[in-house]
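Sequence only, no structure available. Ideas?
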Amino acid sequence: MGTVLILSIDTSAIASAALLTGEGEILAAFATEDTRSHAEVLAPGIKNLMDTAGVTPAELDAVVVGVGPGPFTGLRSGIATARTLGFAWNKPVHGVMSLDAIAVDAALDAWRLGIDEFAVATDARRKEVYWAHYRSTGGTAELLAGPFVSDPAEVPELPVYGVGAGLYPELLHGVSGFTDAQPTASALGRTAVVRLVRGLPLLDTTPLYLRESDAKVPGPRKR
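Reply:
I predicted one. Tokens follow.
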């Protein structure tokens, strides 16, 4: 096809995937609304995505995947799928922090509104949020601190982008139009493209769980 092609996957919140060019053009994308059925929908969704776009695995140049922070089960589904496809297709697999997928669009809005620093917050359940602190620099997002998982009250008093602000409006200063924003593969892919074009490093695929899984190995049976 004569251009760079990237398959982007994110399951830190919803299950989503996208095909992008090296210029950031989205060729095809899908995203679910369900936050609990990632494993069931992701692989069939990717197959349908590539079939619709007429793209074969051989034409891909790389796979990028959101590495969180996010819930253990959902995040693991996306990373395991990306690693498996990368191995099967012999393609490099890169990680991107999922909060960056919101920050890339938030930075443009912040720059337009004259906002210097802002936070991105998503739902961590248990009445907590995943969040990170950014600076808007000419329409791009510079990570200043994070990611963290905490009570919403511990997020700095900054304009907050992301669904976390919509869940806790009494504690977080949400920015209108962005209080239902979730990380998506489309935005994640654009973030990866920007970094690749600028020669900036991407992450590996180590997941950012930030807290331990609820699943525990059973102890010895009591007599």
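The radius of gyration is 18 Å.
Hope that gets you unstuck.
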